Amino acid sequence: MSETPLSVSKFDKTSVPPFEIPYGEYVPKLIASYERFGGWNNADALNLPSKQIVGKICEDLLKLLFPGFLDSDVVANGTLEELTARRLWDVISRLEDQVRKSVRIGDPNTPTGRTPPIMQKFCRALHIVREVLRTDIEAAYANDPSARSREEVILSYPFIEAIAIQRLAHRLYRAGAPIIPRMMTEWAHSRTGIDIHPGASIGSHFFIDHGTGVVIGETCYIGNHCKIYHGVTLGTRTFIKDEDGNVVKGLKRHPDLGDNVTIYPNSTILGGDTVIGENSTIGANVFLMNSVPPNSLVIYEEKNLSIKTKPVRKNNGRDQADLLWSI
Fold it and tell me: Is residue 66 a contact partner of residue 60, using CB atoms and an 8 Å limit?
C-alpha cells in the first residue's frame, strides 16, 4: 500500500476486499455490530422515512401556509390558485410516501391502506391550521412591544416556524401517522430551539416570546390565549414502570394550562395531574409540581438580594465605561 493514503472513492468497492481500502481493517467490526444491534436501513424494510426529505417537506409546507413570505419571488397576481394546487399536489405526494414508509416500520409486509385516509384528514385540516396560526400571529404582535408588523412576526419570529410545524404535525399525529410527526417537530426544534411534541394540544392565540429552550411534552393541554417565555419546561414528574421494570407508555404525564396563563422565563412545571388554573401567572424560575387554582400568582420572594453602588475606577482621567464605548 502506498505511504500516502488513497481516497476510498478511487477503489471499486464492489471488488476490492475491505482490508485493501484505507482504514479497511475496522470494517469487519462495524459489520458485526450492524448484525448484532441492528440500526441499519436495508432493502427488505422498503426503506425508512428520510430525515432530509421530511425536512424539505417541512420547508414546502411552510411555503404552502405562507405563500410569498418564504419564496425568493413574490406571488404574481392571478397565479395563486394554480401555484397552490401545484404545491399541494407536490408536497402531499412526497409526504404520503414518507407516511407509507413509516407505517411499514417493523413489518415490511404491513398493508398501507390506512395511509390515504391519514393524508385526507391532514389535507382537510390545512385551512384550519392556517386560521389558528393567524391567531398566533395576532398574539405575538399584540404581546410583543418590539413587533412592528405582522409581516415581521411571520418572517423573523422562530416561534411562528415552530408552532406552524407543530400544528401541522399534530394533525398527522391525531390521524395516526407514525414517526413522521415527531420528525417534523424535531426538524423545527433543531432550527428554532423550541421543542414541542406533536402530541401536545395547543389552543388559539398562543405565543412563545424569544423561545429558546422551551420544552412542551406530548400530553400537555394548553388553553387559549396562553403566553410562555424562553426556558420554560412543561414536563413529566416521574415515569411509571410495570412489574418488569419497563416504562408504561401512553399515560398522561405532562401538565395542563387553562386559558390566559402566562409563564415567565426558566420556570419548570411537571406532572400529568398538575393543572395551572385560568388567568394565572407563574413567575420566573419557579419549580412547580402541584396544581394552582385560577387567578393565582406564583413567585419566589426575593431573599438576600443586595444592590450596592459600584466604585468608579478611573483610567487616565476617563471612566471605564467611557473606554468601553470608545472601543
Answer: no
320 within 8 A of 313, measured Cβ to Cβ: yes
What are 263's strand-pairing partners? Answer: 228, 282
Going by the DSSP 8-state scheme, the letter that residue 290 receives in this structure is S
Residue 106: partners with Cβ closer than 8 Å, 6 or more residues away: none
Distance separating alpha carbons of residues 75 and 83, to the nearest angstrom: 8
**Closest to 103 in 3D by CA, of 171, 177, 42:** 177
pLDDT classification of 2: cutoffs 50, 70, 90: very low
3-state secondary structure of 250: coil
Give 172-175's long-range contacts (Cβ < 8 A, gap of 24+): 172/99, 172/118, 172/122, 172/198, 173/198, 173/199, 174/121, 175/117, 175/118, 175/121, 175/122
Give the pLDDT band of residue 18 (cuts 50, 70, 90). Answer: low
How many residues can be counted in the chain?
327
CA neighbours within 13 Å on the CB side: how many for 46? 16
What does the DSSP assignment read for 128-154?
A: HHHHHHHHHHHHHHHH-TT---HHHHH
Which triple of cell numbers denotes residue 1?
500500500
Structure confidence at residue 239 as a pLDDT band (50, 70, 90): confident
Question: In angstroms, rounded to a whole number, what is the distance separating the alpha carbons of residues 215 and 268?
Answer: 9
Across-strand partners of 255? none
pTM of the model: 0.84
Task: Give residue-wise pLDDT tens across range 168-197.
Answer: 999 999 999 999 999 999 999 999 999 999
Helix (H) or strand (E) holding 82: helix 80-103
* Phi-psi group of 183: left, alpha or beta (phi > 0 → left; psi -120 to 50 → alpha; rest → beta): alpha
